[in-house]
Design brief:
heterotrimer, A: mainly alpha, 4-stranded antiparallel sheet, B: 18 helices, 0% strand
Chain lengths: 487, 418, 467
């Protein structure tokens, strides 16, 4: 059946002018017992399913199955990804948050159900199908315009070419014609092949390049598409920036704002100066200071800066810096610690002292902290030994608490200010602890309450005993070592 | 076309009157309903269910029947607005339920009375100590009570009831007049008024939902609340129409005028509104759950504890999931008996929805045995009073169950789904 | 035999009990084919060329500004602390909203059996897809490193070793908008297959025949195919209807799940959906009225079609107005300080001009549609529709910018100022939209011929049935 196949008859069609004539013809054809029939219309004709005896489709089931798949995928995917495989807490929500998983599950349900409807329809209809024998008939082009075609397939058991043609003509069909196998060669124009070929070739290039990059190594540096994203042009603190009108790269606080918990309402408390007294003595300086403090809260318009000429020489500290003659510190420092003293405050002060101060000043405050010891060991030339805190000039009578607070805040000579590291409250606590430390170095047994004295005596005795034992042990060990060396 | 066989019946045809088997039920239903209602209230008040619990149960029952009437009113308005043809054969049933609104206004009196008796018996904002007891700043409370106070509440409630009644009476009387005269201009008039009427309806219903239900929790607020109540009401109304029509048809008041196609459409709308109700209630829950702001979560928190947690879960599964799956199939929607089954089922769930909105604010859980008896008596009483009233009104005024001379009746009779 | 029905061109009066015709004049199946096909078959008109040139220029500006943004960074926008969502998100929500009318017309009006949708659904669906393309661009570039936007997809990554955050509304958005785009595309394309077959069968030129033939998938118009096709269409409509609701709902979740005053309010989902439909229909009218008069489609897209759309605009505009009012009322009723402030700030704060523009355009201007003249005279409709579009853009502007610029922390308040890139992108996105739309008009069937023929068939059936 090789050469006859080219002209094999597929069926017969007839053309109708209107829906009504078509429907009437369809019913007649159905009633005549034809089953392999079809109608071709430019739009869906209401009632033709019945007229031709077409069974309803299973498409809704396909779509439902796809939709159920979608909702399952959605829920399982989200529960597994966010609840099991990669857990992380976000805005206090449970790992498996069903309400929050609803939207995506819903969308996936709709998406897959729609795919089911669309692709299911195409599959059931056997589309796409580009070569259809019907297309070889030029008249059939009007099936998508304004004509209606009734078609009886040759596969129908009752099919008989001339009888069917006559029957269709009797039904009022026009242009009754046979549909035969399309014997025109499948001709796809050459340029199409060329274009498709070139496109396919070009499409292969990127994956090949990528694949090659994956498996080879290269000595040349990485290619940076967006250089400034790989190497962020971050600005240093003091650098100039073009991003902001004022040219600074560091942003100052917004005027009129205070960082949380940093509102320095009580000016005395934050400077260690009795401002009322200062205003009485030297109102212009007080005004100047207040303005400096209020206008630029972030800067350190400190006593040390604002008052540098009168202040710096006045600080009597180390033997190496004698008091400059003729300058007297007339600042009305707060004489006492504004914090109510308690063991909690002292412990806090001790904690902070041992963190921040003791590295230089030593745990005992004698100015022989770790840094100093190391500086001496490496014979640092520019090193100035930190002050011992146990000197008359630093006691409360000559160096009021307020002044000590100010020194801790703003620093002095080589010592930096600790304003940034310590809150004002902590600084006052350190002041309190320093006073306690000073008192401890000059304390006599009588300073202790009576009930503690015996305890201390006992402790002292124990310590002495221990020291003696230690010395004994040391001696013995030394002897033993020398003995082994001698052997 | 086969459907063309049924032609509009003449206006004086007694066929579309309520049959005796139905109209005879009016007085028994109404009277027993009234009795049950009164007994329920008395048991609640004097057997220890507590004033707030009793009145909340009353408000639940009242809201339930009112929401069906309001939904029906909306149904009628929207059919006119859209110039719908398919729905003419079922529209009169909706009109019969919507005309109950003026009567329901009388049933609102006990609630007004409770408000006027003061002390926050039903609405906690009536309690002068509310702010102090709940730690509400006095400034805030002063502002709130400018809106939430007895006088203003009464004025607003009266406005709502009058406006709804006016719309309902207008549409009902015109529609009935058309039964007699067959004037096409009446339809045109109803259509022309439907736009403004729908706007007035939505505005009033939103605010009524705020006042009567949302303000039960005085500090809570949700802008969506009106839409939520609206969604439930319209769903309930479609169900009530379907069930009512099925009942009338089974008793022969309507014959082949209402076809499978109409049930199919009502079924589709029920399905659609189940979805819409779910959409609205889920959105409301989701937004409040997600943002987790104390002022708002409190309302849902109350409903996630104790017996209310069970009720909340029930709503999810039985108000949404079950009817959603049940009505999904075209085969179900094309079987009137099944449509009627789902309609009744959803009506029950709609009651649970209202109950879940109102009762947790009464603060005593589901109530003791007395409380449950009270709630059941009052609900059954209210529903049968409502039903009896609707039937009584229809039979007393010889209302036909079909808009026999509506110009679009032929279209509705011939209506076919795709 | 003549299939024509004699009638005038005014079909806006509909006596109860009769249905006004939706296809007018001496129209036959063939004239429908002719009218629609000739748009794509004739050489482009001067008007088309000029329009295309202008919009393509703007679209190129859009493309260039995106390139500039990608190369330079998102700092080229006016987005600054505290307004980090700025114009890109305003534009995103605006365009997504525009994209709602198409699928609404195809799906919801289909489910409600509104036959008048048939003449306008094709162009509206196309508009939907183009609007979604414009919309999706903005969050795509808003992520900063747009070339890594695929990280949003839950794929097993060998570099990241982690999954996306499904509890975030922004990810829901990705799924919602992409699903919406895909389903709308399917819907649009599926609706076009029979018409593409018409184009194929009318082609005189081999190349043209081949191109349309490929797109038409070998459609023959077989009744079996039609039956499954209609079923698939109904199913897609049933899926697309809740999808339309869900998309703008999820977009509204982006705002409403947060705690920003003015954003967190439960009415957002339905209110956003109503607003989207509102703006979408306004855009359909803005496009269809010129299109209709240029291509002589008055008999297919009749005044009745326009009037119905005006009514939908009126209805949704009123819903939007009601929602504005409810929000304001609840802000006062709730007595939460920040919330109250947010709303007073909207109306009387630094962005009062945007707020009142929005109210005028969205609530007041559609009220003109109460008058029949305004619903039936095309140029008036266009003017009002343009106002509505402006208003809806401002609505998103008000929501995004006024709430962000002044939230809980007064020290962090700021004032948003757009940059020239912001402006270029806004105007450019319109360019892209119009370019795509003009291309569509030129090459695709602008009107769903098959459905209009079916409507005509129904009309003829009734016409004959009356006698």
């Amino acid at each position: 059946m090789s050469d006859t196949q080219a002209n094999q008859v597929h069926g017969t069609y007839a053309e109708f002018d209107s829906v009504d004539t078509l429907l009437a013809a369809c019913r007649r054809v159905r009633d005549a017992g034809y089953t392999q029939t079809d109608a071709y219309t430019p739009f869906p004709v209401h009632g033709i399913d019945k007229a031709l005896g077409i069974k309803p489709t299973h498409l809704p089931w396909i779509s439902l199955a796809c939709g159920l798949t979608g909702v399952t995928i959605g829920l399982v995917m989200q529960c597994w990804m966010n609840g099991i495989d990669y857990k992380y807490i976000i805005s206090g929500k449970p790992f498996i948050s069903l309400p929050a998983f609803m939207p995506v599950s819903f969308e996936l349900t709709i998406l897959l159900a729609s795919f089911g409807a669309f692709f299911g329809m195409l599959a059931l209809n056997g589309l796409p199908r580009f070569n259809n024998p019907l297309f070889s008939k030029p008249r059939f082009d009007r099936a998508t315009d304004d004509k209606f075609f009734l078609y009886i397939d040759a596969k129908d058991s009752r099919y008989d070419a001339s009888g069917v043609a006559q029957f269709l003509t009797d039904l009022g069909g026009q242009h009754v014609d046979q549909v035969v196998e399309d014997d025109t060669r499948l001709t796809i124009p050459k340029p199409i092949w060329v274009i498709v070929g070139v496109l396919m070739f070009v499409a292969c290039v990127p994956p090949l390049v990528l694949a090659r990059m994956r498996v080879t190594t290269s000595g040349s540096p990485r290619f940076h598409v967006f250089f400034d994203m790989d190497f962020s042009p971050a600005k240093g603190a003091q650098e100039i920036s073009t991003l902001f009108a004022d040219g600074r790269s560091m942003r100052p606080d917004v005027p009129g704002t205070v960082a949380s918990g940093q509102f320095e309402e009580d000016i005395d408390y934050y400077t260690g100066i009795d401002f009322e007294e200062l205003a009485r003595r030297d109102s212009s300086r007080a005004t100047r200071l207040v303005r400096a403090l209020r206008d630029e809260p972030d800067q350190t318009p400190e006593v040390s800066e604002a008052d540098a000429p009168s202040e710096a020489p006045a600080i009597v500290d180390a033997p190496s810096t004698p008091v400059a003659p003729g300058t007297v510190d007339d600042t009305p420092w707060l004489p006492g610690n504004p914090l109510p003293l308690s063991s909690a405050v002292l412990n806090r002060g001790r904690e902070k002292f041992e963190i921040y101060c003791a590295v230089c000043h030593g745990n005992d405050g004698r100015g022989n902290g770790l840094v100093n010891r190391r500086a001496q060991r490496i014979l640092a030339t520019a090193w100035v030994q930190p002050s011992s805190l146990h000197q008359e000039t630093l006691y409360a009578e000559q160096y009021p608490d307020g002044k000590l607070f100010s020194t801790i805040t703003n620093g002095i000579r080589k010592m930096a200010g600790y304003r940034a590291q310590l809150t004002a409250q902590d600084r006052w606590a350190v002041v309190a602890y320093v006073r306690a430390l000073q008192a401890s170095q000059n304390a006599t047994l009588e300073d202790l309450p009576a009930d503690k004295r015996n305890e201390l005596r006992k402790e002292q005795a124990e310590v002495l005993q221990q020291l003696a034992e230690q010395a004994e042990e040391e001696r013995r060990r030394a002897e033993a070592t020398s003995a082994t060396v001698a052997q | 076309m086969a459907a063309h066989a049924a032609h509009p019946k003449p206006a004086d045809d007694p066929t579309f009157q309520l049959p005796a088997s139905i109209s005879g039920l009016a007085s028994p239903l109404g009277l027993s309903g009234l009795m049950l209602l009164v007994v329920g209230v008395l048991i609640g008040l004097f057997a220890g269910a507590g004033g707030r619990f009793t009145m909340s149960a009353y408000l639940t029952a009242f809201t339930y029947v009112l929401s069906i009437s309001l939904g029906s009113l909306f149904f009628v308005l929207i059919q006119h607005l859209c110039r719908a043809g398919w729905s003419v054969v079922v529209r009169r049933v909706a009109e019969m339920m919507m005309i109950a609104i003026p009567a329901l206004a009388i049933l609102f009196l006990p609630i007004l009375l409770t408000v006027w008796m003061g002390g926050g018996t039903l609405f906690a904002w009536g309690d002068p100590n509310f702010a102090a007891d709940h730690g509400v700043p006095l400034v805030t409370w002063a502002e709130k009570t400018r809106y939430l106070n007895g006088t203003w509440f009464t004025v607003r409630s009266i406005i709502y009831l009058i406006a709804w009644s006016a719309i309902a009476i207008f549409y009902f009387s015109l529609s009935r007049r058309q039964d007699e005269t067959g004037e096409v201009t009446l339809t045109e008039r109803m259509q022309a008024r439907s736009g403004p009427a729908v706007i007035a309806f939505s505005l009033i219903t939103t605010f009524a939902a705020f006042d009567w239900l949302m303000s039960l929790a005085p500090m809570w607020f949700s802008t969506m609340f009106g839409v939520y109540i609206f969604a439930g009401s319209v769903l309930a109304a479609h169900c009530a129409i379907a069930a009512f029509v099925f009942w009338l048809q089974s008793r022969g008041a309507i014959r082949e005028e209402v076809t499978i196609e109409h049930y199919h459409d009502l079924g589709k709308l029920m399905f659609g509104f189940v979805f819409f109700w779910t959409y609205i209630s889920f959105s409301q829950y989701m937004l409040i759950w997600y943002a987790n702001i104390p002022e708002e979560t409190e309302w849902f928190y109350t409903r996630q504890r104790g017996p209310w947690a069970t009720v909340s879960i029930m709503l999810v599964f039985f108000h949404w999931m079950l009817p959603f799956l049940g009505l999904m199939s075209r085969h179900v929607r094309r079987r009137p008996a099944l449509v009627c089954f789902w309609a009744v089922y959803i009506l029950v769930m709609h009651f649970i929805d209202i109950y879940w909105i109102v009762m947790p604010e009464a603060g005593s859980g589901l109530g003791s045995l007395v409380g449950i008896i009270t709630s059941v008596l009052m609900t059954v009483g209210m529903v049968s009073l409502y039903l009896g009233g609707v039937l009584w009104f229809a039979s007393a005024n010889q209302v036909r169950v079909l808009a026999v001379r509506d110009p679009r009746l032929p279209e509705s009779l011939a209506f076919e789904n795709l | 035999m003549s299939l024509a029905i004699p009638q005038g061109l005014d079909n806006t009066v509909e006596r109860p009990g009769e249905r006004a015709p939706l296809v007018l004049g001496e129209t036959t199946y063939h004239t429908i084919t002719e009218t629609v096909s000739q748009i794509a078959e004739r050489p482009p008109s001067i008007a088309w060329l000029v329009g295309f040139l202008i919009s393509a220029t703007l679209a190129s500006a859009f493309g260039l500004s995106i390139l500039y943004l990608l190369y330079t960074g998102v700092g080229v926008w006016g987005n600054r602390s505290p307004v980090f969502w700025g114009w890109p998100i305003v534009n995103f929500v605006f365009w997504v909203g525009i994209g709602h009318a198409g699928t609404l017309i195809s799906a919801i009006l289909f489910l409600f059996r509104q036959d008048w949708r048939t003449s306008i659904n094709r162009a509206a669906e196309a508009m939907t897809i183009f609007a979604v393309i414009c919309a999706a661009t903005f969050p795509g570039i808003h992520v900063g490193r747009a070339w890594l936007a695929f990280w949003l997809a839950p794929y097993p990554s060998l570099n990241l070793w982690m999954w996306p955050q499904f509890r975030s509304p922004l990810l829901w958005d990705v799924f919602a908008v992409s699903t919406y785009g895909t389903v709308s595309l399917l819907f649009w394309y599926m609706g076009m297959v029979p018409d593409l077959a018409t184009f194929r069968d009318r082609s005189k030129n081999k190349w043209r025949r081949m191109a349309y033939g490929l797109l038409a998938l070998g459609w023959t118009g077989s009744s079996r195919h039609w039956m499954r096709y209609e079923k698939a269409y109904a199913l897609l409509a049933a899926f697309a209807a809740p999808l339309v609701l869900s998309v703008h709902t999820i977009v509204s979740f982006d705002f409403a799940v947060s705690q920003v005053p003015g954003w967190h309010t439960t009415i957002f989902p339905p209110y956003f959906v109503a607003g989207a439909i509102f703006s979408g229909f306004a855009m359909v009218l803005t496009l269809m009225i010129p299109c209709r008069s240029i291509y002589g489609l008055e008999k297919l897209i009749t005044v009745r079609h326009l009037e119905n759309m005006c009514k939908i605009i009126l209805a949704t505009g009123s819903i939007v107005g009601l929602a504005y009012g409810t929000e304001f009322f609840i802000a006062w009723y709730g007595q939460v300080g920040e919330e109250k402030f947010a709303f007073i700030n909207r109306a009387f704060g630094p962005y009062w001009w945007a707020y009142w523009t929005m109210v005028t355009c969205n609530v007041v201007s559609p009220q003109l549609f109460w008058f029949k003249k305004n619903r039936t005279i095309p140029w008036r409709i266009v003017v009002i529709s343009i106002f509505v579009n402006i208003g809806m853009w401002f609505e998103r502007f008000v929501i995004v910018i006024s709430s962000l610029s002044r939230d809980y922390l007064p020290s962090a308040w700021g004032y948003f100022t757009p940059t020239w890139i912001d402006w270029t992108m806004l105007v450019g996105s319109f360019g892209l939209f119009f370019t795509l739309f003009l291309l569509f008009c030129r090459f695709m069937p602008v009107i769903n011929m098959a459905e209009v023929k079916a409507t005509l068939a129904g009309q003829l059936h009734h016409h004959h049935g009356d006698h």
